[in-house]
Structure formats: structure tokens, C-alpha cells
Amino acid sequence: MVKLSGCENAPIVYSEIVKVALFGSSGLLGASVHRSLLARNHQSCRYVRNTDTAGSKKICLSDPEQLKRELFDEWPDAVVNCAAISSPDTVNANPDLARAINVDGAVRLAEISSHLGARYVHLSTDMVFDGTTAPYRSTDLPNPSGEYGRQKLEAEKGVLAVTEESLVVLRITLMNGNSPKGNRSPHERILRSIADQSPLTLFDDEIRQPCSAENVGAVIVELLERPNLNGLFHWAGSEEISRYQLGLEILDHFGFREDRILKGKSSDYHGEEKRPRHLSFELAPLVGKLKTKPSTLRQQIEELKLPPDLYHWYREKVDFQGRYLPKF
Fold first, then answer.
1. Coil, strand, or helix at residue 257?
2. pTM score > 0.85 for this model?
């Protein structure tokens, strides 16, 4: 693999096809990274944890010997880790299992990547912050309020301790997009709640800065092609919005009435862990270095598609016919 630079201050880029080991390839972000890799003519070796997907291999981050054998056999130029147990409820129900994936597995991938001389990109989250002093810079002190955030912060520290070269930790925010199984992103959960006649309650005082899975996928591939960019970075969309207002935007896009979701306050939440009220990022440090730019909320909404298995239900139950034309 050869690196080229047009002049002294030009970005360094790879001049050949990169072989990438992609973990968590069946998820919302992993699938987007895979598409971005193919669009840039890179080779994608896909790995999943639970189910066999066409073109992917089943592997578990909690099995160090299996990881070593596989990666040393493939000897990739880069490793991207989108794998995580990201549902707070699932993490809280089995924190030891989640830690084996979210922390131990992530650090193990960083160590193996370093031995291979492979570039490593690890995905983290805005949940490492408590939501009291947004917008956050990458230099701000994290203070997670839940177990998932604590595990992701521990993973960050472990990954960044492995090496200072050819390694990126990228924190991202609430993600919009179309997941392979049609059940992971905000719009898919809203649509399924309507279909199940169990409307979601979304908080109008819980502020987020949503990003697009496709946009983040493009950023990750650009970071793979930029070995001169290393360390901890933030990425998100260009706008802040409450979870409830995002829900209304989604309803409008698909042609449903506003009463299909319920408006609530964060004070209504009675879970064991405090929910961060305001999570947003200062993006300037990375935006100024990349060709890819943050997506607007309108761009994110326009990307959203109806899950195919909901097509017949949608035709019968949509409130405003013709507002959205299903795309598959």
C-alpha cells in the first residue's frame, strides 16, 4: 500500500485499494460503512456476532484466539470496529457480557491491529458525557451517567493507550438511517410502534444532534484514507433537535398525524439511570480537515425509507396518502 501526497501541505491518501476488516457489519452503521468502502473500491471483510449474513463471517469479540487467527490469516490494512452492545437496557441486564464486547473486545482489536500494522478506527458515543454542558469538544472531560457510557469511555481509554499511530476513536451521536433489519433507527422504531398500536413517548426537553449513518460511513472511509489524522474526534449532523421534534419530522416525512407519538418530559422518565438532557458536539476540529461535511437534518430525513415488511400495513394505515412513496 503506497501513500501519496501532492505537496507538503496536501492530505495524505492511500493510492491503492485497502483491505478492511469490518466488525459489526450487520448493524445500522456497519452496513453503511460497507457500502462506502465498496463505493471507494476498497475491499470489505465483514464480521458479525450473532447471525450469519451473506458475505460475512460469524465471529465473537470475546474470543481472543478466534480473533487472532482470523485477522492474522486475513492480514487487513485496516480494522473498523462498529460492533457494540449499545442498548442501555441490554447493557444493564448483563453488564459482564456487554463489557466483554464493548471494552475487552474493542481493546483486543486495537492490540491486534497494532501488531499487524493495520489502521484502526473505533466507534464511540456521545453517551460518555452527562448532557449538562453541551456542546462538547473532544478535549472536554467525560462524565457518563449510565453503564453503557461508562463502558464506552473505558474502551476509549484502553484503545488510545495501545498506540498513538494509525488509530482513530470517533465519537458519534444519535443516528438516523435505514438498518438492514429495519428495526434499529429512530424512524423504524416509530413506524413499528404505530403498527403495534403502542405509540412512543418522546421527550421535548431532551436535545440531540443526530447524524446520518451514510454520512458517518463516508467519514470513516475518509479517515481510513487519511493516515495523518489520528486520535480522538467528534462527528454529528449539523443541527440540534429534541427527540420529540425529530419524531414529528419523521411522521411528516412518512405521512402520519402528529398524535401518532406522545410528547413527554425527561422528568417523566423513571429508569434507574439519569438520561442526558443535552448532547451535542463541537465539530470544527474535524470538519476543517475532511472533504465530507456534516449532513443537515433535511438530508437525513430524505434518506429514510419504509422497512419492506411494513409495506402492506403502510398502504392501508398511512394517514396522508401520497406524502411518501415507498422506495426499495
1. coil
2. yes
